[in-house]
Amino acid sequence: MWFRKNPPKREEHTLFDLILQYKKSGDFVHFHNPQTPQPYWISYFGSLIDVEILHRDILPYLNRTALTSIKDVKKILPFEDVLITSERQIIEDALLRGSVLIQLHEKDAACALVRAEMKKSREVTIPEEEYSVVGPKEAFVESITTNLNLVRTRLPISELQIREYTIGSLSKTKVAVLYIEGIANEENINTVCQRLENLEFYQILDSSFISQLIEDNGNSLFPQLIDTERPDRVAGVLAEGSVVIIVDGSSHALIGPISIMELFNAFEDYYINWQMASAFRLIRVLAVSFSILVTPIYVAVLTYHYQLIPKDLMVTLVSSRRTIPLPPFLEAVILELTIELLREAGARLPTKVGQTIGIVGGIVIGTAAVDAGLTSNVLLIIVALAALASFTTPVYRMGNTIRLLRFPFLLMAELWGLLGIAIAFLFLMNHLLRLTSLGRPYLEPIYPPRMKDLKDAIIRLPFSLQSNRPHFLQPQDQKRFLKNKASEVKDIDE
Predict the structure, then answer these.
(1) 163: part of which helix (H) or strand (E)?
(2) 181 closest CA partner among 164, 148, 158, 165
(3) What's the order of all strands across the beta sheet hosting 243-247?
(4) With contact defined as beta carbons under 8 Å apart, do 27 and 45 qualify?
(5) What is the pLDDT of residues 283-334, one digit of tens each?
C-alpha cells in the first residue's frame, strides 16, 4: 500500500493575504496615500475605529513627515502603545479590536498598529433590579473597563488582583476574575480560573453564559452563583473572600461561592440597623415558603384532608366552590398558569404597556373567572398572594426558581395529599444537600451547621459582633477586625 510519509507543508498566509481577505468586508478600508513625503498604506475597520482619533492624531502626522522605516511611526505619533510587529495573529486580533494598521509598502511583512477603537457605552445609571432606597445609586454597565473602575474606586488597595481571559472562539469576549490576595481562598480562585481556562465555547454574550457553563450542577434550578448589578455589593463580597467574575458586554457580575441564605439577603440590609434587617430577612424566608407551599396545601386539604378544615372556614369554602365545575388541582393549575402568562406578557411588553397589562389584566381576568364560576374567590386570593410573595427574593434568578417549584409540589399534592407534599420536600432537601457552589456546601450554615456564620444568615447581628469573615468561604485571613478594639468606647475627654 502506498502512503505519503511527509505530507505537504501548510502554506503560510502573509499579511497581504490577510488584507485581501478583509477587503471582502464592506466596512474594511485599505487606503494608499501617495501625496505625502513618504507614501504609506493604512488599513482599518471603519465600524470599529474612532474616526476623530484617525483624522486628529494619526493622519496629520503621517502626511507631513518623511518615514525612513516603519519604526519611525512609533516616534512621530502621539501614542505610547504603538506596536511594531509582523506576527499575523497579533495583527489580526488588533485589527478586530479597533486598531489602525500602517505599512510603508503594501506587501511589507512588518507594520505598525495604533489603537483607535471606538468606545460606545451607556452612562452609569441607578440599579434597576437591585434598587435600594438607602445606599449608593450606581450600577454596572456593559463596558468591562468602566465596571473595573467602579470596583477599583471602592477598593483602592494593591491586594485587589485581576486576572483576564479571552473566551469564545467567535466572540473573543474579555472576562476578568477579581479577588483580594491574602483574603480569598486559593482553592476558590484556582477553581474559577481553571473552569474558565477549560471553557471551549463559540461565543460569550453575557455573564449568564459563564454562569451556566461553570456551575457545579448545570441541571439544577437553583442559582449557584449570584449575579449582581451593584458595584458596592461586589466590593463587599470581595472583602469577605469571595471571587467575582466580570464579563465584557454584560451589566451583571458573578459572585461565588455562595450559600442558599445569601439568595435571601439584599445588600441594602447592611445600610439599615440590624433589627430591621433581620426582620426583613425573616419576612423574605417566610414569604418564599408561603409562595411554594400555600397552593399545594390548599389542593391537598380540599382533596384528601377536608377534616382538618375548621367548621366556620368550611362554610366559606363550600359557598365559594358551590358552582365550580373543576377539581381543586385543575383550578389551581389554571390560575397559576394565568398568573405566569400575565407576568411574562408584562415583562416582554414596553414598560408602560406592561404595567397596564399586569394590573388591568389581573383585575379583569380574576373578576371574570370568579363571576363565570371557573374559580373560587378564596383560591384567587391565595394564588395572588403566593405570586406576590415570590417577588420578595432580592435575586431575580431565585424568584424564577420559586415560580417553577410550585408546580411539582402541586402535582404531588394532587397525587398523595400532604404526604405528597412531604415527599416533594424530601426530594428538594436531598437535592439541596448534594448541591455545591464551586465545591462549597450550598446549605451552609444550616448544613453543615456553623454557628458563627448564623450571625449573618437568617438574621443579621450588629457589625461589632461580626469580627470574623464567613467560615464557608475558607478565607486566608479569618479576621475582619479586632473585636476588642471595635467594642472600646473612649471617654469624651480622651
Answers:
(1) strand 160-167
(2) 158
(3) 160-167, 173-180, 243-247, 253-256, 226-228
(4) yes
(5) 999 999 999 999 999 999 999 988 888 888 888 888 888 888 889 999 899 8
Question: What secondary structure, in 3-state letters, does 81-131 show?
Answer: CCEEECCHHHHHHHHHCCEEEEECCCCCCCEEEEECECCCCCCCCCCCCCC
Distance CA(434)–CA(71), nearest Å, equals 60
Q: Which three cell numbers stand for residue 468?
A: 470574623
Q: Which residues of 191-227 are buried (b: 16+ CB within 10 A; e: fewer)?
A: bbeebbeebeeeebeebbbbbebbbbeeeeebbbbbb
Cell 393549575 sits on residue: 333
Per the structure block, which three cell numbers stand in for 494?
A: 480622651
Count of CA atoms in the C-beta half-sphere (13 A) of 237: 26
- For residues 208 and 358, what is the distance between their CA atoms, to the nearest angstrom? 27
At 43 the three-state DSSP class reads strand
Give the confidence band of 10 by pLDDT, cuts at 50, 70, 90: very low
How confident is the model over 146-186, as pLDDT tens digits? 999 999 999 999 999 999 999 998 988 999 999 999 999 99
Q: What is the pLDDT of residues 250-269, one digit of tens each?
A: 999 999 999 999 999 888 89
Q: What is the pLDDT of residue 7?
A: 42
* Mean pLDDT score, 99-115: 90
Q: How confident is the model at residue 194 (pLDDT cuts 50, 70, 90)?
A: very high
Count of residues making up the chain: 494
Give the Cα separation of 276 and 269 in Å (integer).
8
Residue 5 above 50 pLDDT? Answer: no
276 grid coordinates: 430591621
Q: Is the link from the previous residue into 136 a cis peptide, with omega within 30 of 0?
A: no
What single letter denotes the amino acid at residue 368? A
Identify whether 448 is preceded by a cis peptide bond (ω within 30 of 0): yes
**Distances 418 to 35, 142, 330, 406 between C-alpha atoms, Å:** 88, 48, 17, 14
Other C-beta atoms closer than 10 Å to the C-beta of 168 total: 17
- 253-256 and 243-247: which strand pairing? antiparallel
For residue 408, whether the previous peptide bond is cis, meaning omega lies within 30 degrees of 0, is no
Give the gyration radius of the chain's Cα atoms. 30
Q: Are 111 and 86 in contact (CB under 8 A)?
A: yes
Of 240, 284, 269, which Cα lies nearest the Cα of 391?
Answer: 284
Q: Alpha-carbon torsion 195, 196, 202, 206, what sign?
A: positive
* 295, HSE (Cβ side, Cα atoms, 13 Å): 36
- Could you tell me which of 113, 139, 231, 136 has the C-alpha nearest to residue 178? 231
φ, ψ at 99 (rounded to 5°): -95, 160
